[in-house]
Amino acid sequence: MTEAWKALSQCLPPGNANSDAWWQLTGRHLAAIVDAAGYPLEKQYEALLFHYHWTVPYMGRAPGPWLRSPADLPWKSLMALDGTPIEYSWKWNTKKPGSTPNVRYVVEPIGDDAGTELDPLNQRASRELLFRLKKVLPGMDNNWASHFLATLFDHDDAVFAREAARGGHLGTSVQLAVEFHDKATAIKSYFFPRKYGQAGLMPLEQWQTCVDELRMEIDADAGASAAVFATPARTAVDNFLATSLHGKHLTPISLAVDNVAPLQSRLKWYFHTTQTSFASVRHIMTLGGAIAPPEMDALLDQLASLVKVVNGLADDFPEDAEVPAGSELETSLDFGELSKALKGYLYYFDIAPGKAVPEIKLFVPTRYYGRDDLALGRALTQWMEANGRGSHCQRYLDMLESLAGHRRLDEGKGLQTYVSCLFKKGELDITTYLGAEAFHPGRLAPKGEPCLTKRSTLRRGDSY
């Protein structure tokens, strides 16, 4: 237990059964993560209190003796393979002296009426939370989020309810991220489109139309016509998607914005590809050679070594070969059109104003590729140490152990779900994404019944 968790656990009032169960699990997780990242004690309190008051009440039904399988949930979140509606992330420190990791999490708010005729796409809780948070977070702005809520979805709930009654698949459509910066807490919105009769992922042309209608500034005259949203970064991405062989293999799946004034926001457009060779990574991360700063060759060499480490590949693994699966995915949930995106790589392109070319981030799904959580954690921290970024490696491994209270790290994978990377200020900006595994059998075994034996997989000083 961390100091902040001990103090808060003694004074916070109990909520309902679901909130209390989520707080006991995810509150402890968040406490361990922000403490391991070196957050000052006052920021740890801030993060935990925000989570307690603003996130936990919106997490829906919690696992426990009364609910042992996500299959029994009235609304099944697709945030994780096991239905857990939260994922944490640890943005690694850089080489700069004094640099520390940044922590955030993404959650799918779940309303009481999610999946019913009143709320077939489970959006009411997210809308309510965005509305309420705008009143308390300085600088929060929901204009771009409102635009995509209006344009990426059809809005006759009765039609969606009839589709669901006929066996149609309705799943996660909105997620919110909470990021704990040095100065203030920040919110981001993620959107997964849903149109009437949608049988697959939304076509690129429909995405482009929704982005076309985006406004940089909100005019006083709501009826005023606006120019097509165009930025140099967007033009570069559109051209790449239309002309590059690797670009033509990219399928749009999601979009995200910062909930700040449009001129300060990012606009992150997420794509999936089945291509996993480093040749394809090299081509996409440079936008087919359009992004070519002087340090690009060195950055690509570092990225190649990182990708091999994360995927458990030999140093001489061919650049043009596809990465073999590390394991099969285990899920009882129906991911619908998003099931294809569970394998392969993900990328996002930030096409917001202020950039001549987009920032591009690669996501490697470590729950599918690579090795168990212990092997991945050790390999990743070894890479960080070798590249001058080892200040928080032991703390990271100890934190992983604290998340894995239900199983040994070497007995499975999924606590580390993705490793991502973008090029920023001449360095690799690296983030590890962490799952809660709330519905893992090791967490849900009734008292007195056999469950997965848990003993530590690390000893102090035994990281490498």
From TrEMBL:
GO molecular function, one term: prenyltransferase activity
Family annotation (InterPro entries): ABBA (IPR033964), ABBA_DMATS-like (IPR012148), ABBA_NscD-like (IPR017795)
Binding-site residues for dimethylallyl diphosphate, renumbered to this chain: 104, 188, 190, 266, 268, 270, 433
GO biological process, one term: alkaloid metabolic process
Binding annotation for L-tryptophan: 87
Superkingdom of this protein's organism: Eukaryota
UniProt keyword Transferase, yes or no: yes
Annotated signal peptide: none
UniProt xrefs under Pfam families: Trp_DMAT
Keywords attached to this entry: Transferase
NCBIfam families in alphabetical order: arom_pren_DMATS (TIGR03429)
Protein family membership: Belongs to the tryptophan dimethylallyltransferase family.
This protein's name: Dimethylallyl tryptophan synthase GliD1
